[in-house]
Please model this.
Amino acid sequence: MTGTMETMTMSDGATVAVYHAQPTGERRGGVVLVQEIFGVTDHIRDLCDEYAADGYEVLAPALFDREHPGFEADYSGEGLARGVELARQLHPFELSMKDVQTCIDTLAPAGPVFVVGYCYGGSVAWFASTKLHGVAAASGYYGSMIPAAADEEPKVPVILHFGRHDHGIPMEGVEQVIAKDWPNATVYVYEAGHGFNSDRRKDYHEPSADLAKQRTLDLFRANGG
Model:
């Protein structure tokens, strides 16, 4: 790991842990990287380090710190159950949005800020493109809340990544997002399942992960990064 865990005071006064990775070489911009329901795990920290190696200063807030400080889980049944409980019952989604906004505001003075998120964070990335301020572009991976919010037009360029074989996000919902044909939104469908970006998961699909990452970098670079 090349980054460090730090703390940040959020808009409600809470102190939340944030993984902070500094860019390698010339700084291209800032990235707020939003976690899966499993917390700021070693996988999430690895992703932060990868974006830092690409020239971005990265912040990844531990969104569930108020309810479960230091929460990190593997993909087992117990960890999954606790992550679902935190995401769907104990932690207000609006607080996640506010914490991401605080991270955006922290990075913004130094240049353009981008948002990328995975699973739970993929939904956050979509809403960042429709609701938050100071976002140059966003990339959301397999966010399950997106189809139900497809009527909200993105204010900034956003790309979405879904797996055709994702049992938790039926293709009917993805097709609803595609049908909206928002000028700022591009939807990509991969021959993969849920979580295809994580090499810790059984559904990891390296070709899809590599292509989605390149598309994300291309999006950032086309919008000031």
About this structure: Residues 34 and 117 are 4 Å apart (CA to CA). The helical segments are 42-53, 77-90, 93-107, 120-131, 171-180, 206-222. The chain is about 35% helix and 20% strand.
